[in-house]
Specification:
The protein is of the alpha+beta class. The protein folds into three domains: about 40-300, PAS domain (Beta-Lactamase), CATH 3.30.450; about 330-490, Alpha-Beta Plaits, CATH 3.30.70; about 505-760, EAL domain (TIM Barrel), CATH 3.20.20. The chain has 24 helices and 26 strands. Strands 18-19-21-22-23-24-25-26 form an eight-stranded mixed β-barrel, surrounded by five helices. Strands 2-1-5-4-3 form a five-stranded antiparallel β-sheet. Helix 12 crosses helix 14 (about 495-515) and helix 18 runs parallel beside helix 19 (about 640-650). It is elongated, with a radius of gyration of 59 Å. The two termini are about 90 Å apart. The structure holds ligand C2E and magnesium ion (2 copies). The site of one magnesium ion has 5 residues, from strand 23.
């Protein structure tokens, strides 16, 4: 647990992420709660508006009911027969008895069919008035059964009040049912004003009383001009008349302020009361709180991010310092190479790997010869330059998996993984060559020095089982190299010494032979069941003036290791093609030539181009050439480059033959993938025919595979007729071997073709 936490803490970026995370989280939570608070404010306002409108509606309805009852009393009294017999004062007394109770609401009066005001609840008799021009009179006159009618607002003609009023009217009928006049009650709109006055509606709130046709009867805050205006055109009007109550948000027609409106119809009256609470009032409290909370959150967020940046910055600096310290501890300051401590760590790791995989590795102890002289004559900074340059060169001579470091002074150490004596000798030889080139130390004066080195080599496991022993032995070998003349490589074990020496000698001699064109090519016939010549295999030969005949099995490996193989193969290919062309001119018919190639050849992207060029140069066809390669080629690590070349070669129409088939990692899939034409049964299987049942069955298997995949199968190393017959019996129809001919120099091969042509019919008739 502790380790997890500390390793998490070890990532500076994590602090920044955490800071950002916290900031995002707090901002998110704040936003959501502010949003909820806003919703709450609206919900509360909605409740308040609904409650207010309800209580206003109740109050208004109750009063209007009382008023209407009083008016109906008047109607009943005035319509009762006999009332007309009474004197006007008595009539008033009878009729307006009930109206006394509603005096604070307004006056009730009656008019006759002509509209003349005949009776009035007010005891002070009004001057004669005629109301026939009023809408409430005209509506009742024209439509029987209108019931209670609510008039448009008007300014009463009686009294000195300028205050607008409305009238409620009922129709009077005579005993025959004809229009006899109206009973009307005038209601001062200031009554509603008083009623609405105490309602709490906020700074920008409104209270409105409307007729259902949209006429404004009263509006709070009060503006004289609002009375009588109509809202019927506004988009919020339809909901007001479509249902008895409701709430909605809208921008007011009259003052363009957005409000939450709650409305309610007043009982059965054609009236609607509307409470409007301005949204800016509703959200005023919320806005103040949101502002405060927002500021606090922002401050906290900024603080969090600053802290996380600070922490991560500190951590980063600490890591940088630790990294620097580590570099100092494990790497050499001058050359940047691993130092002694790092080297012994790495050696231990390589040793563990090698003992686990039972593989070999080599330690090269490299000591510069007479380095002290550079320091003494050119100065220390020149010495430093030399060491840096040497380090740079050394780095070029090891593979990625190898380690090269500086032990101190002029001593370097290379640890080469998966390395046998041959590679060790090869790498050490290369290093000696590389170091021996001049090094410019003082560019200004064009001074340069040339240094040689002495290299001691020890090999695991032969020369030691542990790192200390191996190092000590490499050191001893290095002293031996120094004491026997410097600028040379010494192996700790004498056996290796000899092998390595030979290796180096061969490498150098081969290089010389290649340059001097001292190699030659021998040709071995390939024949079919009738013994007819079907082609020839080109095999390189090296007869060295000092070393004598060196067999290909020895020098091909060295050529591969030292990188000379590509040049060698290119030469053989060209020479074989030249030879084939020459034979043709001389009338010696050889259908095709097989040339051995290896993985390194294919790695060059120019290889297919080179082959085309060579064929053309000698006037040959692609069908005249067969490339023989061992299965190893297919499994080389950089298969991709090889595949490109193989595909290109196949596209050219050049046949591929798999040499020594069955001895490698035979896999049917690649035979298919690379459009192989021919399989060559390895000579070890052929040698086993008649002797080794296992070898026999392997030979048979190869033949079967070839037949199934429709590839031609050729057996190499056929020495006896018995071998040839066995192969023939099992379906192998092409042969190569001493039974027919050993590989021959070109002139002998031409001779063989000549004599063989004459012999073949004899062989056929046998
Ligand atoms: P390989 O390609 O399998 O060649 C066949 C080898 O069998 C040749 O050995 C040949 O001389 C030998 N041989 C032929 N008939 C018989 C026989 O009846 N009995 C026995 N015991 N051996 C027979 P050589 O010439 O020594 O070549 C050895 C290997 O070196 C070749 O094996 C090939 O892999 C390689 N090689 C030869 N020339 C070249 C070349 O120009 N380039 C490359 N890359 N490799 C080459
Ligand atoms: Mg071959
Ligand atoms: Mg072979």
């Amino acid at each position: 647990m502790i380790r997890i936490t500390s390793s998490l803490l070890a990532k500076p970026a994590l602090f920044i992420f955490a800071g950002l995370g916290i900031t995002l989280a707090t901002t998110g939570v704040t936003t959501v709660s502010l949003y909820e608070m806003r919703l709450d404010a609206m919900a509360q306002a909605r409740d308040a508006a609904t409650n207010l409108v309800l209580s206003l509606q109740k109050e208004t309805e109750r009063n209007l009911d009382i008023y209407q009852l009083a008016m109906r009393d008047v109607v009943t009294s005035l319509e009762s027969p006999g009332i007309l017999q009474l004197a006007p004062d008595a009539r008033r007394l009878v009729a307006f008895n009930a109206a006394n109770n509603v005096r604070e609401l307004g006056a009730i009066f009656s008019a006759d069919a002509a509209g003349n005001d005949i009776l009035d609840s007010r005891w002070v008799l009004p001057p004669k008035l005629n109301v026939s021009d009023r809408d409430y009179f005209q509506v009742q006159q024209q439509q029987k059964g209108t019931g209670l009618y609510l008039s448009r607002p008007f300014v009463p003609r009686l009294g000195n009040s300028e205050q607008p009023s409305i009238a409620l009217s009922l129709r009077l009928d005579d005993t025959n049912g004809h229009f006899a006049g109206v009973v009307a009650g005038t209601l001062r709109l200031s009554y509603f004003h008083q009623l609405f006055e105490d309602a709490i509606i906020g700074v920008h709130g409104t209270l409105t009383l409307l007729r259902t046709d949209g006429t404004v009867l009263m509006r709070q805050p009060y503006h004289r001009d609002d009375i009588g205006r109509t809202l019927a055109g506004g988009h919020s009007f339809p909901p007001l008349v479509q249902s008895d109550y409701g709430t909605y948000v809208d921008v007011a027609v009259l003052d363009h302020i957005e409000r939450l409106y709650s409305f309610r119809r007043i009982g059965s009256y054609p009236l609607v009361v509307v409470v409007g609470l301005a949204t800016k009032d509703i959200y005023a409290g919320w806005r103040k709180r949101a502002f405060a909370i927002g500021i606090v959150t922002a401050i906290l967020d900024v603080l969090t991010i600053m802290l996380s940046l600070m922490f991560s910055g500190q951590l980063r600096r600490r890591f940088a310092m630790e990294h620097q310290l580590q570099t100092l501890a494990w790497f050499d300051a001058l050359t940047g190479l691993p130092n002694r401590a790092q080297l012994s760590k790495e050696t231990l790791r390589i040793l563990t790997d090698a003992s686990r995989n039972s593989s070999q590795f080599a330690i090269l102890f490299i000591d510069l010869d007479r380095f002290k002289r550079v320091n003494d004559t050119q100065g220390h900074s020149a010495g430093d330059e030399v060491l840096s340059e040497i380090a740079r060169r050394l780095r070029n001579y090891v593979r990625g998996e190898d380690v090269i470091g500086r032990l101190g002074g002029d001593e370097f150490l290379a640890v080469l993984q998966n390395c046998d004596v041959h590679r060790a000798a090869h790498v050490a030889g290369r290093i000696l060559q590389a170091l021996y080139r001049p090094i410019t130390v003082n560019a200004k004066y064009d001074t340069s020095v040339t240094l040689s080195a002495s290299i001691g080599v020890s090999l695991y496991p032969h020369d030691g089982q542990d790192a200390d022993t191996l190092l000590r032995n490499a050191d001893m070998a290095m002293y031996k190299a120094k004491s026997t003349g410097r600028n040379q490589v010494h192996f700790y074990a004498p056996v290796y010494e000899r092998q390595a020496k030979e290796q180096l000698e061969l490498e150098i001699a081969l290089q010389r032979a290649l340059q001097a064109r001292a190699l030659s090519v021998a040709y071995q016939p390939k024949v079919d069941v009738t013994g007819t010549l079907r082609g020839a295999e080109a095999l390189v030969r090296w007869n060295d003036e000092k070393l004598g005949i060196v067999p290909p099995d020895r020098f091909i490996a060295i050529a591969e290791e030292s990188g000379l193989i590509a040049e060698l193969d290119a030469w053989v290919l060209d020479e074989a093609c030249r030879q084939l062309a020459e034979w043709r001119i001389k009338g010696i018919d050889v259908p095709n030539i097989s040339v051995n190639v290896c993985a390194a050849d294919f790695k060059s992207p120019d290889y297919p181009g080179f082959i085309t060029h060579t064929l053309q140069a000698h006037g040959l066809e692609p069908a005249n050439l067969i490339l023989e390669m061992t299965e190893r080629v297919m499994f080389d690590e950089s298969l991709d480059d090889i595949r490109t070349s193989l595909d290109a070669i196949h596209a050219l129409g050049i046949a591929l033959s798999i040499d020594d088939f069955g001895t490698g990692y035979s896999s049917l899939s690649y035979l298919h993938r690379f459009a192989v034409k021919e399989l060559k049964i390895d000579k070890s299987f052929v040698r086993g025919i008649g002797v080794d049942a296992m070898a026999e069955s392997l030979a048979q298997t190869v033949i079967n595979i070839g037949n199934v995949l429709k590839l031609s199968v050729i057996a190499e190393g056929v020495e006896t007729q018995a071998q040839r017959d066995f192969l023939h019996k099992h379906g192998c129809l092409m042969y190569q071997g001493y039974l027919y001919s050993p590989p021959l120099p070109p002139e002998d091969f031409a001779l063989w073709v000549e004599t063989h042509r004459q012999q073949t019919p004899v062989r056929e008739s046998r």
